[in-house]
Input
Amino acid sequence: MAEMQYKCPCCGGQIEFDSATQNMKCPFCDTEYEVDTLKSYDDVLNQEAKDDMRWENEAGSEWSEGETDGMRVYVCNSCGGEIVADETTAATACPFCDNPVVMMGQFTGALKPDFVIPFKLDKEAAKKALKKHYEGKRLLPKVFKSENHIDEIKGVYVPFWLFDADADANVRYKATRVRMWTSGNYDYTETSFFSVLRAGSIGFQRVPVDGSTKVADDLMESIEPFDFKDAVDFQTAYLSGYLADKYDVDSAQSLERANDRIKRSTEEAFASTVQGYTTVVPEHTGIKLQNGKAKYALYPVWLLNTTWQGKKYTFAMNGQTGKLVGDLPLDKGAYKKWLFGLTGLLGAAAFGISYLMWLL
Output
């Protein structure tokens, strides 16, 4: 015979029937519940919808006859990346790992992009952005700041899958409201627990997920957003003078990241409406997608490779907006001096406080 079990809405512990009060009671936090109230809460949990995040895939189209004439594929011997460019482009190094690449031949076998955002910023703008990125970095090795230290700058069209969907969502939050007061010689704290429900629809347009494993996902997400108002229907002419990364993650393989971004955005949007509580924690999110579609686009990115003490550093700049990100090396000597100075400052402050206490 199955045993009915209930979890405490406050602490999550298993609650039991208390014969003395004829109520349900949690032995962990001592919260009591009327049986009917708890049953109503349990009914709500049982009715919560699960995620139903299915998509229709309309991304890309087949290349027309003659459309790929003059396009070539370069293959990296190190990371295996396939880079598409026009036949006049001199690609001698991989823009992702900076190792030599070789020309494989005629470009075939991939979907044609639906859209492209053309480059708005040139190579000189990328150099200036990197110099600005160095400014104010006191712990950066001085020699690293030299322009001659830049090994390679490449303009690359990075493949992105763009997801549109209407999301019908039901979100449940665990919220608390804390009240504190003092009476006589005692301080009191009262914590009230609430189950907060939110439901509604949110429309998402062009949720981006990069389709390349050669570029770190966090690096691409960091240079977002791209402004889609500059996007145009794809034409091979936009590749002239630039490289284009051939996607190695298709739209179906990108759905998990798209769903995760939609889920996080939905929870953040709904959470902003839950106000007046001390704490708010999402407990359950049920999302059903409608009109889910995917498109394929190329977005402009400048990749800058540098080397310091045998270690490679890659910087990425949004070729439309100029936003640049990337990790920087640490000058250990400068760091030690800074740490020594900070320790001395803290020591002096501690001595000053101790001396002041002694005076008092």
